[in-house]
Design brief:
The protein is mostly helical. The chain is built from 7 helices and 2 strands.
Length: 148
């Protein structure tokens, strides 16, 4: 089960919202049709963003990824106790312990820094997607010339 804080996805421009929706909930870059669909749903309608987040998390793809969606105003479930020294526990335990140690470490990074890093990653992925799309279009154009 992968827990996602839906409240962290609500901010940003409509474009940033849709990109974050896909990258955070579905662990992938948005496909062109999905991007357009969700962008049209939320364009200049910030009031519908929470519903869109819930819809994507509840989709077949979101369910297959075992996404558990939470919002800041949701009641918090009882949490398991954290190990006294998560780094030491990770060194002695398995992958689950290493993940717990990483999450404990991330908890010490200020939210503003995490948001800035997330935005940088989002921008970099956008640039990569744009560059790859241009390459694909150039290849298609060359193929059409050869065939045409």
């Amino acid at each position: 089960m992968r827990e996602v804080n839906g409240s962290e996805l609500l901010a940003g421009s409509d474009h940033e919202f849709v990109v974050n929706l896909y990258t955070v909930i579905l662990n992938r870059w948005p496909d062109e049709d999905g991007y357009r669909h969700h962008l049209q749903r939320v364009e200049n309608r910030p009031d519908i963003r929470r519903q869109v987040i819930q819809d994507v998390a509840a989709s077949a793809e979101g369910r297959a990824l075992n996404v558990e969606l939470r919002f800041a105003d949701d009641p918090q479930p009882d949490a398991a106790p954290a190990p006294a020294d998560p780094v030491a526990a990770a060194a002695m335990g398995g992958a689950g312990d290493a993940l717990a140690a990483l999450l404990a470490t991330l908890g010490t990074v200020p939210d503003l820094e995490l948001r800035a890093l997330h935005r940088q990653v989002s921008d970099a992925l956008g640039a990569i997607a744009t560059e790859r799309a241009a390459r694909v279009e150039a290849r298609l154009a060359r193929l059409e010339q050869r065939l045409g």
